[in-house]
């Protein structure tokens, strides 16, 4: 039986969109704000370099572990309630992480990662259900919001921590603003769907998804995008420093790459709506990302060009991957099941990528192997995008 949701007024639709965008702002900022402060955290807490590195990997491991069950949570509790609960978990994780003890730093990081995983899976499903004709544009909008929030968190992390009377605990706690504001704006949505929407045969969606070639093609595209993105985001400053840039210049270029991920959200939505299918654009953004990686390898003196191109290409590929989750499925429950599958496998790859890239660097003394492997992965993305971009559904 399918529950009929109450009709939303124009103002209600606007509040829903605002809630979606604010949820998006809480999905990256609490993670990206940590990386600039790893040095301060190590100095004051005494954790080793390896332990500090775990802080950046823990959220990805949480994404991989929780994503498969997020669709089940959404079906049983309803998407509005599940997203509200996810925001509460994110806020609790940030508070725990900022409380002081070293164990709380790690436990809080894992906790907020679990909350982010649920929201990551359910947002594409929500768009499929409530905005079936605006999937591409709204996916682009929440990608922009997420990118701007993560860039802001990265930029202000160190200055905030160095303010008189402040420290890294307070700087980490400052990202609480994102889930708290989202909770306030999202609260009215709890009354819109008083019961979960159950569709015939919904319990079998997950099994069918895992046996669908198209689902594996979408999963592969999004998974490789995540793998390449997190390797480069994690190691780009080190790559640039080894290429001869100062730490300050490398940090600036890292920020440029993050800001560039927001640009595709401005143009990709209108383009996708006019396309019969998305094969061409999937191939184009994959190859653009490939060119940027080869450029960093062969011509690092033009790093500004390559990091901007990487941010644009990887950001566009990520938006396309999320759009595929909605466009390649027949209804919202199927979209949630595919989102869980794609993000589980994608973030498993992403969690393994940075450590493996670091091992390759230690073994060879340079970043050439990591960059070439990432370039090969983007070429595979183009192949998978050619299949995932077809105008068909599972």
From TrEMBL:
Pfam families: MFS_1. The chain crosses the membrane at residues 52-73, 80-96, 102-123, 135-162, 168-187, 214-233, 245-268, 280-297, 303-325, 337-357, 369-389. InterPro entries: MFS, MFS_Cyanate_Porter, MFS_trans_sf. It comes from the Bacteria. Keywords: Membrane, Transmembrane, Transmembrane helix. One of its GO terms (molecular function) is transmembrane transporter activity. This is MFS transporter, CP family, cyanate transporter. It comes from Bradyrhizobium erythrophlei. The lineage of its organism: Bacteria, Pseudomonadati, Pseudomonadota, Alphaproteobacteria, Hyphomicrobiales.
């Amino acid at each position: 039986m399918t529950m009929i949701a109450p009709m939303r007024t124009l103002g209600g639709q606007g509040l829903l969109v605002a809630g979606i965008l604010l949820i998006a702002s809480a999905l990256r900022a609490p993670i990206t704000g940590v990386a600039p402060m790893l040095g301060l955290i190590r100095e004051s807490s005494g954790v080793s370099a390896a332990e500090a590195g775990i802080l950046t990997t823990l959220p990805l491991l949480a994404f991989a572990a929780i994503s498969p069950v997020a669709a089940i949570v959404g079906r049983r509790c309803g998407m509005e309630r599940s997203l509200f609960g996810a925001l509460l978990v994110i806020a609790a994780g940030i508070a725990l992480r900022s409380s002081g003890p070293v164990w709380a730093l790690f436990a809080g990081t894992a906790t907020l990662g679990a909350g982010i995983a649920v929201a990551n899976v359910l947002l594409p499903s929500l768009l499929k259900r409530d905005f079936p004709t605006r999937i591409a544009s709204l996916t682009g909008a929440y990608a922009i919001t997420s990118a701007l929030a993560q860039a802001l968190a990265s930029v202000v992390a160190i200055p905030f921590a160095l303010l008189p009377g402040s420290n890294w605990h307070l700087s980490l706690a400052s990202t609480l603003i994102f889930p708290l504001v989202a909770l306030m704006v999202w609260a009215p949505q709890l009354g819109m769907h008083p019961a979960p929407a159950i569709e015939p045969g919904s319990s079998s969606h997950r099994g069918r998804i895992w046996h669908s070639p198209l689902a594996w093609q979408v999963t592969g595209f999004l998974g490789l995008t995540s793998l390449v993105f997190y390797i480069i985001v994690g190691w780009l400053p080190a790559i640039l420093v080894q290429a001869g840039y100062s730490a300050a210049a490398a940090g600036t270029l890292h920020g440029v790459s993050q800001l560039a991920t927001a640009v595709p959200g401005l143009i990709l939505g209108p383009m996708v709506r006019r396309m019969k299918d998305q094969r061409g654009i999937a191939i184009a953004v994959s190859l653009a990302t490939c060119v940027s990686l080869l450029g960093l390898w062969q011509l690092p003196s033009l790093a500004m060009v390559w990091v901007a191109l990487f941010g644009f290409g990887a950001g566009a590929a990520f938006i396309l991957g999320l759009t595929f989750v909605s466009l390649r499925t027949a209804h919202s429950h199927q979209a949630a099941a595919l989102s869980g599958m794609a993000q589980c496998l994608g973030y498993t790859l992403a969690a393994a990528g940075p450590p493996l890239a670091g091992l390759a660097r230690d073994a060879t003394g340079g970043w050439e192997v990591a960059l070439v492997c990432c370039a090969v992965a983007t070429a595979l993305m183009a192949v998978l995008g050619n299949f995932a971009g077809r105008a068909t559904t599972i």
